[in-house]
């Protein structure tokens, strides 16, 4: 009887202890996940070709902007004077103007940062500032290295009224009015499935020393699209530029990262300043892998879209129907491109329709 009585008294204490211990462990686990920015793997769904990413790192509650508060951002895109870059910028600027003043938009002014060193034929059509390219040969044929150097120059010489900046690219099309997804010291960025700092710890430790913490402190992003506070970008941009050049100068790093080297450089540069980004997978969609538009804000048409006439994806092959920006390296796409066959995803159909609308309304398109 005495034993049973003691057990009866002890059980609630044990239960409370277990519950508290469980809560404490759960809290530590969540804190660790948030601190290290643990990212679950991307999973490709064979059923519909979609790529999914979870979890999304959302804006901390204590820095959320008040409802109806407008925090405008300057839209900045780096570009060259090559025809391939020019026609993309013209389409991008057309859709920027269409979406800029719609409800829900925080888009401010627009600048094309032309890093070719001299004006081109579209200075009057697109608001443009000319900056210098890197010294000849320094980019080693990797022209993207000019991007951080272009931002460094622009931030030094331009008068930018907005407190925030969106770093964009010519092959971006605004599909919905874009609000400011950032706040204060928390920039907003799109997470790329192929930026995997944890897979390259040995290489990254050359640029991100151990005293800076685990390599998972490096976000799985590039510099675009990113919405960031102007003063913060002014601090990061020189570091981003220097890291880019050092990475390109290191054969092991250059081989490891290839065409995404500059993206890793921005991710490392921002992490060196202790900056973490709000990861927003709704920031952007990328046909043909993302199938629906939904509430996303930007179409990034970097991948070729190839389909047979049954509407089936033929990625890696030349499709019976195709849209690929690389088909138009030497001249702009013609007006009134043919629409995809039935069964092609909404994202691809929307992309072609938006290109067609822009080219139909931009004066002297094929000049």
From TrEMBL:
Entry membrane topology: Single-pass membrane protein
Superkingdom of the organism of origin: Eukaryota
Main location class: membrane
Pfam families linked to this entry: HPAT
Localization terms from the record: Membrane
Sample GO molecular function, one term: glycosyltransferase activity
Keywords: Glycosyltransferase, Membrane, Transferase, Transmembrane, Transmembrane helix
Keyword RNA-binding among record annotations: no
Annotated ranges, domain Hydroxyproline O-arabinosyltransferase-like: 73-366
Record flagged with keyword Glycosyltransferase: yes
An example Gene Ontology CC term for this record: membrane
PANTHER family in the record: HYDROXYPROLINE O-ARABINOSYLTRANSFERASE 3, PEPTIDYL SERINE ALPHA-GALACTOSYLTRANSFERASE
Record protein name field: Hydroxyproline O-arabinosyltransferase-like domain-containing protein
Annotated organism of origin: Gossypium darwinii
